[in-house]
Amino acid sequence: MLGLGLRSSQNAGATSAPPAPSFATLLSSDFNTDLTEAQLFQSGRIGGDQLLINPYSDGNAVVKAVLPAGWAQGYEAVSGTADPLVADDITSVGVWDTGLIDGVTSDIYPLLWVNGITNTPSADTGADGPPVSRTDSTVDTSDSDDGRYLYTETSSNRGGHTSTVQPYRVFLLRTPGLNFSTDMADTSNVVRVEMQVHGFGGTVGEIQIWMDDASTSNTSSAVKVFDYDGFGQTDSSDPYEKITFEVSTIDLPGSGSIDVRTTNSDFYFYIVHDTNKDSDLSYTGDLAIDNFFIEEVS
């Protein structure tokens, strides 16, 4: 008892510090997926699978990322198949959105990301490599297979573009599904998404994050939960920046307002690079991302 001459170890008027927040990683990827030598054919060791039939044009090859298990991209994330379709069957590869092209509302088909090591190939845009680590956003130019990242190559043919679908360019990634109601230790905690981004170029546009409870989607069935266009890079060697946002209740088309933390369903994040916000037909729009994390935070 203090009245018997015992002294409190805490200063008068002080309060105990709140407990430090706890973190639990629900999903993460640094995209350092091993590639075969055949997948390293691009100049500068820019890795990627080569599709011998390009579903967006006339049969030319198009580079796509080699992704970790459960991830998808491009037409696979809207149509459910990774198989390239016949070259003239563009209407069946899946539409992510519609947009005005030369004053006419046209279908927008999702394009593919690239798994890179060093710089993106276009001048005056893109990053010189991945970030060194999640905690060090300095650009790594060491040309090491241990350091990989994903980027969008907005030069026409690399993205799978022809004049029939320009000038609107949308690049799409989809995460594996997560059932937060069972994956989280405490569904009253916060779901936080974090990634590092690099947006050097005159026409980068914006990055958007959408959510759906389906493994294939488009803007009619998914809901946009985040967008960002404030990229601060003025050179390809500038450090990455970190973006974060939190998710709890979303207004999902067809389902209304739902709490993703307590709904017994798999939820998917769709990562979209939308270049049309700034300019048409420009090659200076390469966007890079790395170290993608979904965490439960108390």
Number of helices: 2
Unreliable segments of 5+ consecutive residues: 1-12, 42-47, 50-60, 157-165
Strand content: 25-35%
Number of domains: 1
Computed over alpha carbons, the radius of gyration is: 22 Å
Distance from first to last alpha carbon? 35 Å
Mean pLDDT: 81
Structural class by SSE content:
mainly beta
Approximate shape: globular
Indicate the multimeric state.
single chain
| SS elements, strand count | 18
- SSE string, helices as H and strands as E: EEEEHEEEEEEHEEEEEEEE
Main sheet: strands, sense, barrel: 6 strands, antiparallel
As a percent range, the share of helical residues equals: under 10%
Topology:
Layout: E1 23-29, E2 49-51, E3 62-64, E4 72-73, H1 76-79, E5 97-101, E6 104-108, E7 110-111, E8 114-116, E9 149-152, E10 170-174, H2 180-183, E11 190-198, E12 206-212, E13 223-228, E14 241-247, E15 249-252, E16 256-259, E17 268-274, E18 287-297
Parallel strand pairs: 7-10
Antiparallel strand pairs: 1-18, 2-3, 4-10, 5-6, 8-9, 9-18, 10-17, 11-14, 11-18, 12-13, 12-17, 15-16
